[in-house]
Amino acid sequence: MENVVELKNVTKNFKGFSIKNIDVQVKQGFVTGFIGANGAGKTSTIKMMMNLLKPDAGEVKLFGLDYRTHEKEIKERIGFVYDDNVFFEGLNLKDIKRIVGPAYKQWDDTLFYRYIEQFELPLNKAVKTFSKGMQMKASLAIALSHHAELIIMDEPTAGLDPIFRRELLDLLQELMIDGNRTIFFSSHITTDLDRIADYIVFIQRGELVFNQSIHDVAENYALVKGGIDLLDRDTEKAFIHVQRAATGFEALTDNIKAVKSIFGDSVIIEQASLEDIMYYLKGGIQHV
Question: What angle do CA 241, 190, 53 make, to 5 degrees?
Answer without folding.
Answer: 95
